[in-house]
Queue: 4 jobs
Job 1
Amino acid sequence: MTEEVEATIGERIDGSLAGLILASIGIVIVSALVQVSFGAYSTTLSQAWHAVFNPKVIADPKVLGALLFGGEIPDGTNLSNTTTVVWSLRLPRVLVGIFVGVNLAVSGAIFQAVTRNELASPYILGVSSGAGLAVLLTLVVFSGLSLFLPVFAALGGIVAFIIVYTIAWKGGTSPVRLVLAGVIVSTVFSSLQRGLFFFADNIGVVQQALAWTTGSLTGTGWEQVRIVLIPTLIVIPISLIVSRQLNVLLLGERTARSLGMSVERVRFGLSILAIIAASSAISVAGIVSFVGLIVPHVVRNIVGSDYRKLMIGCLFAGPALVVAADVGARLALMPIQIPVGIVTGLVGGPYFLYLMRKQQNMGEL
């Protein structure tokens, strides 16, 4: 039994994947330390390190629970200013960035397998636009329901993908029809998003809506950590379990059916998983572009196309990209903070063009 487990781990973890994981963890740690160190209240990296691992916080379940679940810090607990700033304001933003990176990377990887197109992503397939439209409708038209924003974001993503699936259905679906239908739905929903701005008469709402449409981690706190934590804990193990099904889908529909797979059921179920992942990220950070496209492709270039390795790589590379990009978004133009989606867009746009130039055959398109 032990030998079987070791063999399974050996199949998933090799030198290239281990290197990717270590490099990603290093990027996240360095970026996180920079993120929590600098700002209106600046500290040294050493002070930030000690604040993050302050035993008064991490060794006290009551304090940790109060921060995580939004309670009051127990009486008699005296935290330094540095620890208070780090744990109350800056560390939650890093954690949200990690969860957003995980969810968008996993979502993009699944959609690329479902469509057998390396250029597919939640944005291309209309999921991001659907979730974004739902968020904007909630903010502009149904502002009293903003507490349910994550739920509406998920519903918007699901509705958008159902429309895409319906348009693409013709006695079954195909990767090409899914992508083309996704582009159409994404375009329509993006136009509706821009149209909603004309109905917003509150400048605060407009600014909040703009932040959602560009993707921003500004102002995120423990509430957003709690919102995104549960779906992330559901998505991660399932995405690892279904990696074999994703490998089979990549072999093509005819081969998958010959192996006994119900292609449409599996494709739809995996798509729902990807929608949940993307929607949970969008519900706390808005539409952070290109992460779902770039990360799976970078990981694929390093570890290969085996989804048993690719999914593990995405779990680490996604957070590395988002957390590092958010450091640039927050500190590059201090005191002005720009949305992280702008930084990922500036990185992702040129990389997208690079893919177009490099790819001889973009999936089945």
Job 2
Amino acid sequence: MFLAIRELKHAKWRFTMIGMILVLISWLVFILSGLGNGLSSLSAATFKNMDAQYVAFEKGARHSMSRSVVSENLVSEMKAQEHVEDAAPMGSHVAVVLKEGNEADSEKIDVSILGVDPGSFLEPKIIEGQSLTEAENYEVIVNNSLIEKGIKIGDTLEIEGTTETLKVIGFVEGETFNHLPAIFISIDQWRSIHFAAPGSDMGVELPVNAIMLQGDGIDLDKLNDVMNGVEVATKKEAINGIPGYTAENGTIMMMLGFLLVISAFVIGVFFYVLTLQKANQFGVMKAIGANNRFLAKAIVSQITLLASVSIGIGVLLTYGTTAIFPSGMPFALDPMLVLTYAVVLLVVSVFSSLISVRKITKIDPLQAIGRVE
């Protein structure tokens, strides 16, 4: 470590430039991870937040709420199955709402209207106002992002294309679905909105999009055999079934993967070139008694120290950058995710130093001294 620190101080401008490259790479990795996490939350936050482990869709719906229609009557049958602790129906509907009294197109808001049973485990915790009730006047609780759109408790929202209106009675936090802010309403009132067109319920009695299940160790094959016309999936499979979710995350993960590979290549090449330039110095050190292990530790310590400082600066820059991002930008930094990528970057940096270490072990002291002469 002493040799590593001494060299870092001696050639500080050279290592500062290498450090700057590491800072920029780590900054970009953290920004991309925050963007990926933000898009993921925007697409499936409601599914991720719900306290359910399995989702029952219509058979052949490919785990998609928009393709599935099942009967709410199945809830009682589901509850009777082995290891199923609770079950609740859910429905989704994409709509455009406008605050009563507003007329401009720019004030229209795209939302996901989600039908749940009031008081069930699917109803999210409110942060302001009151919870859902069975009242018949279309009372709803909405995601708090609508506050930025000027929506407040007591407001009435008109649903474009219908004569129905929604009364806001509470706010929830971090609830989005299909990239849209979520509005929760009782399942009966959701049904009257979603299946308003004659015949749209396809003759299904009390239609809903899916039934959420609580329980551990549910045998999916056995449950699928018992429940005709229904396909039960894990929550993870249901999240992957949300349109666009897998493609978005796959793209971000591919970019992060390429970025990590590129960073390993860049760091490895930089230190390999430095090692080549110092080959005669390493040879002299070997000639006076330094062994390969000592020199390898010096190189690895040097890269670990430089990478740690650079990654730390990258983290600070990332958190600083979030302060200037627009509020509507889908960006969410998860501290655990930041820590994970920081460790991955550090490991990649250390592994990239192994090329230099291998070069050092092959340096012949006599040949190196000869170069000096």
Job 3
Amino acid sequence: MRRLAIPARPDWRDKANASGFDFHTIDGVPYWDESAYYAFTLRQIEDDLEAPTGELHAMAMDLVDEVVNSEQHLRTLAIPEAFWDWIAQSWRERQPHLYGRMDLAYDGFGPAKLYELNYDTPTSLFEAAFFQWQWLEDRLHTGHLPANADQYNSIYESLVEAFGTVATQIRRPFVLAALRESDEDQGTVAYLRDCAMQAGVECSLLDIEDIGVTADGRYTDMQDRVIGALFKLYPLEDLFVEDFGKYLPRSGIQLIEPAWKAILSNKGILPLLWQKHPEHPNLLPAFFDDGSRLPAGWVRKPVFSREGANIAMHLPDGEQVSTPGPYTAGPYIRQAWHPLPAFGDHHPLIGSWVVGDRACGIGIREDQSLVTQDSARFVPHAIVEDTRGVLMA
């Protein structure tokens, strides 16, 4: 694994705008950064990232049945009791799921380590599935990458296949919704709609804010039609505590991602995985936080948090690092400190995609801090064999 400089395409902004990648620059700061790329060998991809992703996904899925049948586990994960039966029913019915992303720390040498699962509202999808693939093709065409370079990326094909597989199980009308003011979320659902339509699944877009509720507690679209299935890029845990979400268990709506994803998107799944698979090479020791002082060598994370918010690190040398955020209510977990690799001032985090139940690609976001936050840049990757010195731009 190497970080290599490469000239940016002169017209990449035009291509981004033309493809609907409106959030390539956020608040004047580039989010998409193709002034460099990460190079992997095929062995690193297949043995160190793809295979562990599949294994970790299977381990997590195996835990769902145990959790939905345990009041103790559900309570520990801080899932409100009013939603327990609804979540369990969605699992017993094996309501279809679409995709997820697990975040891995990997330096090209040791085993990748699981930081967390983003299995409810994962983003950075469009840039991972489409725009970095377009970058690869363009750089191959201009000779900036060796002719045999490739990319670990079948995310688009896997999404279309997954939609096609579950097409008959998706109730109609099928609506994909995100927050009106979030360009990234709107871009994600627009891309997923395109994938669904490629698979022959009729669907439409809707702003979350425009979803209505009937007098008998069913969710409706702008034409007052009762929504059959809803892909919502909105956290389940927020719906659990908002007045709007109280209708979910009896509304009859089908959610994608399904209700049982509330278990896998909860960081409490990390200590449960560690209890089940202690010493697994791709897991970090993790425990539920008891509120005592965080010892050196450990990280405290809220069970509900996004984009690196409210993370507290106590480094082995005594330094303490923390990030701000709204997730202050807890509960929390503790995870053993395992730093992201450093390539100069850049700390890359591997987002490894699972579509259906298949590991199918990666995206990389890098931050200049030890915590990957919402300001982290997306940097493309390629599979090239190690010919040090030849590829440097």
Job 4
Amino acid sequence: MYEVFEHTADLGLHVEAPTLEGLFAEAGRALFSVIVEELDAVEPRTTREVRLEGPSEDYLLFDWLTELLYLFEREHLLFARFEVRRDGDRLIGRASGEGVDPERHHLTHEVKAITYHGLFVEGGPAGFAAEVILDI
């Protein structure tokens, strides 16, 4: 589950999931829900694998979202489906989607960057939660 909230001149994402892997997958969906109007219209025609390593879940989430944003900017790919696996300090993620089709995809926000401001990932008995602010 995710929700987008206003944050001064930027947008924030609040994400919750029962598992840490699910949290990262849902954060990917949250990011692209800000970029494209109908996320469910994005079809899984291509997949990119992202491998990251980091000292904490906070930094891994930052790097995960930054890499997805980089793939969008460099390859003009929209992603809507994610599979994430943790192996110690490493994260292995697969993002599936397709290239931007101006006739089918209405882009709504330009996300300039993922920020460290207010970034957190926390776990508890009910699952995991995270917040991240997007520079738009």
